[in-house]
From TrEMBL:
Record's keyword annotation contains Acetylation: no
Protein name from the UniProt record: Isochorismatase family protein
Record key words, sorted: Hydrolase
Pfam family, any one: Isochorismatase
Hydrolase recorded as keyword: yes
Length: 210
């Protein structure tokens, strides 16, 4: 039995229902993850350009555009277990350029930014409250990294009651193998992994938010 047959026999890989009130969470496209002068970064120029197209389409219809960033107070660095495992993240200090959202994403002053201390954009942040308050039923997830914070956000999103879409060309990672493996697994279990063009076509069918 092939891998695809094994997953299908187990009932995985079903299509995600799509609602009429989407939003996007752009995960950690901050300079610490996008500017190659920093060792924690990867090349995300294409993925940011695709994310920007989705954000522009959503804003044009009045749907929420939200960004997340990881930022630590210096007093947290020696106390958080994740920073012992992923020591490079300790450079992401509040007020530094590394935690600012990359301007290449097209972020605007009206876009919400949630700050987090771990992988998921939901954990310990106001993201769930923002989405619920806006009546969101379908969440688009882009950002970095696919195998880390994107995946964690996707899992928490579906567990929080949202239908989830992931454009594969809007997600960046430091290596191809974990990127592809996690896209495959997310598509089987948690989200529809699609692409920017397909998501843009879907957004165009939606009535603007009142």
């Amino acid at each position: 039995m092939s891998q695809e047959q094994t997953y299908a026999a187990a009932g995985f890989g079903q299509s995600v229902p799509r609602g009429t009130r989407p939003a996007i969470i752009v995960v950690d496209f901050s300079y610490g993850f996008t500017d190659l002068q920093y060792p924690t970064a990867s090349d995300a120029s294409v993925q940011m350009a695709n994310t920007r197209r989705i954000c522009d389409a959503l804003r044009s219809r009045g749907f929420p555009v939200i960004f997340s960033t990881i930022a630590y107070h210096p007093g947290e660095i020696d106390k958080l277990p994740w920073l012992k495992k992923a020591a490079g993240m300790a450079a992401l200090i509040e007020g530094t350029r590394l935690v600012e959202i990359d301007a290449a994403t097209g972020i605007r002053p009206e876009d919400a930014v949630v700050t987090k201390k771990g992988a998921s954009s939901f954990f310990g942040s106001t993201l769930a409250a923002l989405l619920t308050g806006a009546g969101v039923d379908t969440l688009i997830v882009t950002g970095a990294t696919t195998s880390g914070c994107v995946r964690a956000t996707v899992v928490d999103a579906v567990q929080s009651g949202f239908n989830v879409l992931v454009p594969r060309d809007g997600c960046a990672d430091r290596a191809a193998a974990p990127h592809e493996a996690n896209l495959y697994d997310m598509n089987q279990k948690y989200a529809d992994v699609t692409d920017t063009a397909e998501i843009l076509n879907w957004i165009e069918t939606l009535a603007p938010r009142a």
